[in-house]
Amino acid sequence: MLISPSQLMFILTLISGTILSISSTSWFGAWAGLELNLLSFIPLIITKNNQYSSESALKYFLVQALGSAIIIFSASIMLISPSFAPLCLALALLLKLGAAPFHFWFPQVMEGMNWIQSIVLMTIQKIAPMLLLSYLTFNYLVTTILFYAIILSAIIGAVGGINQTLLRKIMAFSSINHMAWMLSAILISENMWTMYFLFYSLMSSSVALIFHFQQIFHFSQITSNNASPLPNKILMLLSLLSLGGLPPFTGFFPKWILIQEMTSSYFFMPLLVLLASTLISLYYYLRISISAFVLFSPKLKWSSPHRSQSLFTPLMAFINLFGLFIPSVFIMF
């Protein structure tokens, strides 16, 4: 499907809002960039073919507007209590990110989107709030709040996806779990966050694109889909294991480097929770991928035909396995 001129305009303004936020020299400019990003993403969510898109757009707008209102409120707090204002800013940015304990809106908004919109929400929409959070780590209260957010996001992201049957909700809880790793990387350095975020964006986008090309949205569609060729099922398995951070796939390397840095920084308690939550999240990744191999049912007559993936399949396989071919590049970090 070709991108219409209006969609292209909103995509460009969305990216411009993100760039404005992260390059601004004042919190007012950062707030303006966040608002431009929000108002550009709302029209991209609403589609005629999805009856739940309007609900998701409204929920997303209300939550983001609340976060923006708290940012404006913290500006007035700055005049009264300069030490308390960074805490209000951090809470507002965590709300915009959908990190625990402010995660309530994230799976619900993801449920009403298609896979391409979900990729934008899981990747591009996290750049500006996370980089703005990195500017607040000098404050002790903010650092303490981030530690609690890391632990809660890791636990909720792992446990919340266990009994889910909607793949978009599973990917939402997976994103919350990875958000805990990215918040940990922010506390160490911006370079560490950049490295982890790039790998996470690559892995999550590859999984979402696999589901998009096969038009799979529910767990039952995987178990009843015999028309999918075996290479696509193997590709799904590799991509999900890479997203889960299982060695020796590509997704393991950023976690490996971050584990070393967290050990050097004596972040033992958050690291223990992160490792335990990763093992739990691997359960529902394996639940999805193994079901494609083990559970079968007769082919449904109304199942949609699969789109051509002659180039897509080897490309995604390379993305999830190229860490095996050049491991020395990642060790140099």
From TrEMBL:
Cellular localisation: Mitochondrion inner membrane
Signal peptide: none
Entry keyword set: Electron transport, Membrane, Mitochondrion, Mitochondrion inner membrane, NAD, Respiratory chain, Translocase, Transmembrane, Transmembrane helix, Transport, Ubiquinone
Entry superkingdom: Eukaryota
Domain NADH:quinone oxidoreductase/Mrp antiporter transmembrane residue range list: 24-79, 84-279
Top EC class for this record: translocase
Function: Core subunit of the mitochondrial membrane respiratory chain NADH dehydrogenase (Complex I) that is believed to belong to the minimal assembly required for catalysis. Complex I functions in the transfer of electrons from NADH to the respiratory chain. The immediate electron acceptor for the enzyme is believed to be ubiquinone. Core subunit of the mitochondrial membrane respiratory chain NADH dehydrogenase (Complex I) which catalyzes electron transfer from NADH through the respiratory chain, using ubiquinone as an electron acceptor. Essential for the catalytic activity and assembly of complex I.
Name of this protein: NADH-ubiquinone oxidoreductase chain 2
Species this protein is from: Homarus americanus (American lobster)
UniProt lineage: Eukaryota, Metazoa, Ecdysozoa, Arthropoda, Crustacea
